[in-house]
Amino acid sequence: MRLTIKNVSHRYDQVEALRDINLAIEPGEVVALIGPSGCGKSTLLSIIGGMLAPSSGDVLIDDQAKPEGCLNPLTYVFQDFALLPWRTVAGNISLVLEDHPLSKSERDVRIEEVLAQTNLSDFRDAYPKQLSGGMKQRVGIARALAVRPAVLLMDEPLSALDAQTRILLLDEFSDLFARTGMTAVYVTHNLNEAVRLAHRVVALRRRPGTIKEIHSIDIPIQDRREGMHELVSHEQALWNLIRDEAIAADKELENVA
Amino acid sequence: MSRDIEMQTAENTDNKVRFRATGFNPKANPVAAWASFFVVIALWQLGSSTGFISELAMPSPVAVAQALWQLIVSGDLWRHLAASLQRLAGGWIMGTVAGLIVGFMVGMFTWARSPGVALVSALFPIPKIALLPLFIIWFGIGEPSKFATIAFGVFFPTVINTFGGVDNVQRNLIRMGQSFDMPMWSVIRKIILPGALPTILSGFRISSSIAIILLIAAEMIGAQYGIGALVLSAGQLYQTDQLIAGVLVLSVLGLCVSWLLGRLDRWLLAWR
User: Fold this and answer.
1) Which ranges of A99-146 does DSSP label H, i.e. alpha helix?
2) Fold topology of B61-268
3) Phi and psi at residue A12, in whole multiples of 5°?
């Protein structure tokens, strides 16, 4: 499903967060948004997902090309998982299906399917407090996949996890994108995640966020491996692109403090 | 220097690091809890038996037990208790339902927030028992004024805890529901209500205690039956054994309500 971001700008009262963002995301493409703290990455993702009304501009989706069985074209994976502590793993997944015209058996089929995809079948009756951070994020992904979305919106999904879990989940994301050909917008601070997962990396300038450069990575996602020489080069190129912005943003924060 | 020699030198010359993280960790001891009851009752009985405590001012535990037994076998206790329970349940349910509705509206809707908080803040500190004469003028000396007093007293803490509970529901959970296009009613029923439930249930404990206090106060004015009426008439007739028996029944009533709420808590919040 094609996603077009057209002349999007946003202000929070006196603060200009985003200015004139234009971007087209093609079906099956994974786009990473990177940039210094406060550059408006998460704001842009919220606008794309319809969770924040932009001050000006529009986000357009090609509704005709929805995947089969899609209940929710734009679906989030949250940084802090956003799981209901009073529901089990299966209950959290079921939550997003219950208000759609699906029979109980259709719902159960979808739940079992995404539990299997995320290796959670043995934990269907566990409560979130019984799970590790990595498992909780897997539930978040399973929940998002259950509605068979056209575009997955991921807001720093690995930032709350420890380094080892992050590496494991990064491999799983890579496998998911390669296997399903799903369209995704991935916000991250971590350049390694961006070069492992994205077809294109959009580097934003510090506030007000504007697009500085769009960096393409032409290696198929399934062929990318941790520590791969070409990926390290891409990571270095991205760091060179945002380094000055990050230093300037850090100084601005120091001044505010 | 070898490792063994190093260890030996340390043992000879160094002081042991003192464990400092002691205390500030009180633990429950059920035996001590029951023992404290027995000690108080035993001292009380001893004081009465030796004449140290006047029988007229404070009857002995045995006399209180006999008075309680008399109330049970004569059927008076059940008549008084039934009347009190009806008023307690009726008033508490009315106040709680109204409090939950208003609390949810104040917690969720901008149009209800400011007027609701202002009115609740202004009316909550009023001692509700002071309004009983007004309720008697409005509703008469019979049951409605008693129900109204209890309901009014229960209403405010319920409103405050409900909107506090709604406020405390993590916004990211609500946004998650909205991001999956959950309808508003589903967000309320499946996210906000269960998320606010722990605070609402702790409010029930406060409101039930207030309800019992107001019940007794209301029954002391114009009631033929009820534990409050029993305590008042026993006091007027200097039947202190019956008076203390009535107070004991109130204590047991409070414990039963607390136990029931504890069960409700465990049942509804088993996930915690």
Assistant:
1) 104-117, 133-146
2) MetI-like fold (1.10.3720)
3) -105, 100
Q: Which of B81, B200, B207, B88 is nearest to B154 (CA)?
A: B207
Model ipTM value: 0.88
Residue A76 and residue B179: Cβ atoms within 8 Å? Answer: yes
Residue A77, strand partner residues: A154
Burial class (CB in 10 A: 0-12, 13-18, 19+), A164: exposed
Domains of chain A and CATH, by start: 3-256 (3.40.50.300)
**Tokens 């032409």 correspond to what residue?**
A218
Q: Cβ A99–B271 below 8 Å, yes or no?
A: no
Query: What distance in Å separates the CA atoms of residue A155 and residue A169, rounded to the nearest whole number?
Result: 14
HSE-CB at A58 with a 13 A cutoff on CA atoms is 3
Nearest-angstrom CA–CA distance, A226 and A206: 29
Contact indicator for B194, B270 with CB cutoff of 8 Å: no
Domain spans, chain B: 27-57, 61-268
What residues are paired with A75 via a beta bridge? A152
CB contact under 8 A, B180 and A86: no
pLDDT digits (tens, 9 = 90+) for B127-179: 888 888 899 999 988 899 999 999 999 999 999 999 999 999 999 999 999 99
What is the C-alpha separation between B136 and B138, in angstroms, rounded?
A: 5
Which phi-psi region, left, alpha or beta, contains residue A77 (left: φ > 0; alpha: ψ -120 to 50)? beta
Q: How far apart are CA A165 and CA A172, in angstroms?
A: 11
Count Cα neighbours of A44 within 13 Å in the Cβ-side half-sphere: 37
Unique residue bearing structure tokens 């734009």: A74
Of the two residues A64 and A225, the one the predictor is more confident about is A225
Name the region of B74 (left: φ>0; alpha: ψ -120 to 50; beta: rest). Answer: alpha
Chain A residues within an 8 Å CB radius of B176: 76, 78, 82
Can you give the length of chain A in residues? 257
Provide the CA A81 distance to its chain's centre, in angstroms.
12
Q: Is B226 left (phi over 0), alpha (psi -120 to 50) or beta?
A: left
Contacts of A49 in chain B (CB under 8 A): 179
pTM of the model: 0.84
CA gap A28, A68 in Å, rounded: 15
CB contact under 8 A, A99 and B172: no
- The answer for residues whose C-beta is within 8 angstroms of residue A133's C-beta and 6 or more apart is A81, A160, A161, A162, A165
Phi-psi region of B86 (alpha: psi -120 to 50; beta: other; left: phi over 0): alpha
